[in-house]
Design goal:
It is a single chain. It is built from 12 helices and 17 strands. The protein is of the alpha/beta class. It folds into 2 domains: 42-55 and 310-403, Aspartate Aminotransferase, domain 1 (Alpha-Beta Complex); 81-307, Aspartate Aminotransferase, domain 2 (3-Layer(aba) Sandwich), CATH 3.40.640.10. The strands form 4 sheets. Strands 4-12-11-10-7-5-6 form a 7-stranded mixed sheet, sandwiched between helices. Strands 1-2-3-15 form a 4-stranded mixed sheet. Strands 13-14-17-16 form a 4-stranded antiparallel sheet, with helices on one face. Strand 1 (32-36) and strand 2 form a beta hairpin. Helix 4 (89-102) packs parallel to helix 9. It is globular.
């Protein structure tokens, strides 16, 4: 393989990275250079079964032929980006697929989940000022939520640890108690314009919403003329076994935000809106230079077409059911596992001990995992993971979890 860099070992890469990269991540001492299916490989050729998938990003795994062929076709065509001053057939196709899968109306493309949530926050405030009055700019999000690292998104994130050192936060955002409809309702007044919620809280610990909670939020938003925004950046794109998590709850939001798995590893985010939120933003209100460019939108179209295939989603559901069963078995046999949460291929276990040593021990045995808080291990493998690979991962985990 021709390696397009001068490094010859992982140690060289890590030493240079420590010198030249800002230390915004506590990185594992692994240098990933290749992958196939549900496995990745480091510079020395060691393979790892990957149950992180780029943090729920690499939905189609590694080396997917359709995705690779499509991206190569775009690159060979000579235009990976042309700006949104002109029509782009790849973006139009991806938007059409999103509408067809979700039943919603129109899409704005950007580059990440944080950007998608920033777009939703702006949309909500313009909706409020247009439909309810100039003071209707308050937004309610949830405690223990996570919506991104930019200023609006981090303010919407209901976890104080992410705010430390970055005050002042954006005004007008308050935090309701997740799965407590009465608490959220008590925060609504004439100046409220939107409620924003993750159907499954990701960074907050893999905590699913109660169906009655989301259904109640829908009713409250209808009653008070508010936008209901679902952040599906992590839980969307087939991860729950349906194209979107909201389809598991029989609730249709006004806005969904997407990213991570949408591009199968190529950076792309999206905000898709229904009738209540369509027609609010006008030219000049919002933009993203790279949003929906040829390369990113082509990648998104590959993922979205895969999600239209019932057999693909059935495989996710089947692998997810096996994962649930094996995690529940661990809970029954290990006192250090106090809970199992999640749906499909977005699941987590609550531990009575620190997660980091368990994650480290699994890595030494060839399994990559990530935490979602100090005592939660999350499982977000590629959507193409096989049941055999699920069993392999759970066997390794079983060797590393304290009794």
């Amino acid at each position: 393989m021709n390696i397009p860099y001068e490094f010859t070992s992982s140690q060289e890469v890590i030493a240079a990275g420590t010198q030249y990269l800002l230390p915004t991540y506590a990185q594992q001492p692994i240098v990933i250079t290749g992958g196939s299916g549900s496995f990745v490989y480091d510079m020395e050729g060691t393979s790892y079964l990957d149950f992180v998938a780029g943090i729920a990003v690499n939905a189609l795994g590694y080396g997917d032929k359709e995705l690779a062929d499509t991206l190569k076709q775009v690159i060979d065509g000579g235009i990976t980006h042309c700006s949104n001053l002109y029509w782009n057939p790849y973006a139009v196709e991806a938007a059409r697929l999103l509408s067809r899968l979700s039943g919603l109306s129109q899409t704005f493309f950007c580059n990440s989940g944080a950007e998608a949530n920033e777009a939703a926050l702006k949309l909500a405030r313009k909706f409020g000022t247009l439909k309810k009055g100039s003071n209707a700019v308050k937004i309610i999000t949830m405690e223990q939520s996570f919506h991104g690292r930019t200023y609006g998104a981090i303010t919407a994130t209901g976890q104080p640890k992410y705010h430390q050192g970055f005050a002042p936060m954006v005004p007008g955002i308050s935090y309701g108690k997740f799965n407590d409809l009465e608490d959220v309702a008590s925060r609504i007044d004439a100046e409220t314009c939107a409620v924003m919620v993750e159907p499954i809280q990701g960074e907050g610990g893999i905590i699913p919403a109660d169906p009655a909670f989301l259904q109640g939020l829908r009713s409250i938003c209808d009653e008070h003329n508010l936008l209901l925004i679902f952040d599906e950046v992590q839980c969307g794109m087939g991860r729950t076994g349906s194209p979107f998590a909201f389809q598991q709850y029989d609730v249709i939001p006004d806005v969904i935000t997407l990213a991570k798995g949408l591009g199968g590893g190529i950076p792309v985010g999206a905000m898709t809106v229904g009738p209540r939120a369509a027609g609010i933003l006008a030219p000049g209100d919002h933009a993203a230079t790279f949003g929906g460019n040829h390369l990113a939108a082509a990648a998104a179209s590959v993922v979205l077409r895969r999600l239209e295939d019932p057999s693909f989603l059935q495989s996710v559901q089947h692998s997810g059911a096996v994962l649930t069963r094996r995690l529940e078995q661990l809970k029954e046999t290990r006192t250090s596992v106090s809970g199992v949460r999640g749906t499909g291929l977005m699941q987590g276990i609550q531990l009575t001990v620190e997660a980091a040593p368990v994650i480290s021990a699994c890595k030494e045995r060839g399994l990559l995992l990530a935490g979602a808080g100090r005592q939660v291990i999350r499982f977000v493998p590629p959507l193409v993971v096989s049941t055999q690979e699920v069993h392999q991962a759970m066997d390794i985990l079983g060797e590393c979890i304290p009794s």
